[in-house]
DNA sequence: CTTGATTATGCAAGCGCTGTCAATACTAAT
DNA sequence: ATTAGTATTGACAGCGCTTGCATAATCAAG
């Protein structure tokens, strides 16, 4: 059906290996013959069969993306923007993205994530947001298979990883408010403190305060949860403090939206009586009225950097053992709530 | 490095072909030997090499998803939910999803989308939201390569396609309001009428009116654009009509949000003075305050159905020429604006 | 013991490509 | 003309797997 390398060779009147050489640049081919060959390629719409090529070169030119699916949709953090960044890095270097979705109802979900690797249908793997047991990592590591952790810190220095600098993000949010003169700043964590992102953001907040010589007041720190509506309660608690905060940093935009609502309900003016800063700069922050000032995680960049890193690893531009831990700075988008 | 079928055969003490038979069910293998083989597979963590297998079977077990990237992000319509639905269908049948991103700055962008097909690295293709010239389709069609159009109507009956039933969606929105007693209903199109989705939604709206014996008043139909802020102007226009509408259907949620804002600004009470229905049931409708009643496009289902359809095509369960045009009904989510 | 069915085997071809080898053709410089 | 270098060639092995074929081992039933 599809043209093979033989067809191209015949069409161009050259030997099969000459075509291969010309296409891969693996040996000198005279300009004139090259032209004839590429002409034939064009005419026949020829592309080397990936399976055949992969079989001999042991390269697929695919980047695997292990996607864990939970009952309530995709695992947190699988964001379109990340995929987009990944795709950009990939296409630039002639890779495709292979999304392998975890099988539902399986006894060992995390083992499944590695099937792409076992089948050898990708040259490297991006692991994001997946809770995985220890074993698969070991497997990858001992076989020196390229992989990058994305948005999923692995505290030891064993794996390459790309992350948003959540600490700096927390710092940024607090610093932003401090510079505006706020001195009592509440903080609602994005989720429980089991999650590194939550801890880091909080730590950044504390660092900013310390830098401004303000003592951290634990009463100003409220524990948020994955349930955005918990934001209502936290806001009420924070605002009913005798020395109430003049600003609240919410660990996520959806929580920030709740903070705003509650504040309005309680009769506060935003931003005059209460300033609010959210996190993640999602569409929620963008479209809420008032628009919510929000710390932006560099999702696109994260995907892009992870892709570039992985490809460097695959192509040997970076030593497998020279562990890279890339931490990307957050930005802040000012809107109406500050 | 990775175990091969030979290793498994040795480990299990059987012949290579027996392993192959056992794994593919292509011949009878006694239970006892099967057990030995799968034991060895388990121990060695063996998975058949995809490239090798693909080379001989001419199957990759990949579904290609051609992703066109424009300057301002991914082409409209590439939605995470769609990918998720696709992934669900794929993983169910042991396929992976191969995302191939269009190369930037290339002279023939649409030709590039077919590279996955030309390289034979996918067994079928999902085409969504890509403006493509005629030729690539022809190419696919004449070679009888399986592909389905997703969310991108191709009016002739040449291609398999999956779509939201926009006409029914428009009908639903109008019917919903009519049942609540509204008789003057404004309609702001989601974009210009070059787009089928816009026409269909509008037609559905008209059909509902007709069914309720209400004459369509062209003055109540405003042309929206891709720029959500245009919603402000349209709203003002519609509300300043001498016989103003008591409800407005906005072609997209973001427009609906603008309609609401403007209405409030002009001193109308929502939903009492003005009811609003949006489209797409995005997070915007969900999180806006007041929450926007919105017509939901079955994105997840669309992805899922498209995946299933494509796989049926690939596996020959459906004739290539028995064109299927799947149109999936929209639902409506009532919130505070009605 | 024979027969027939079932199960397992070795062998070999071949999928489309890469890349090595040794040989040949061509070109340009000495 | 000789030499050196470059460009191109055919032949072929091999990547890991599937599959057809013919053969052989195994076993139950007649």
TrEMBL record, chains A, B:
Entry-linked Pfam families: LacI, Peripla_BP_3
Keyword Oxidoreductase included in the entry's annotation: no
The keyword DNA-binding appears for this protein: yes
Entry-linked SUPFAM superfamilies: lambda repressor-like DNA-binding domains, Periplasmic binding protein-like I
CDD domains tied to this protein: HTH_LacI, PBP1_LacI_sugar_binding-like
Keywords from the UniProt entry: DNA-binding, Transcription, Transcription regulation
PROSITE patterns documented for this protein: HTH_LACI_2
InterPro entries: HTH_LacI, LacI/GalR-like_sensor, Lambda_DNA-bd_dom_sf, Peripla_BP_I
Domain of life of the source: Bacteria
GO molecular function, one term: DNA binding
Stretches assigned to the HTH lacI-type domain: 3-57
PANTHER family: HTH-TYPE TRANSCRIPTIONAL REGULATOR GALS, LACI-RELATED TRANSCRIPTIONAL REPRESSOR
Protein name as catalogued: LacI family DNA-binding transcriptional regulator
Annotated organism of origin: Paenibacillus mendelii
Lineage: Bacteria, Bacillati, Bacillota, Bacilli, Bacillales
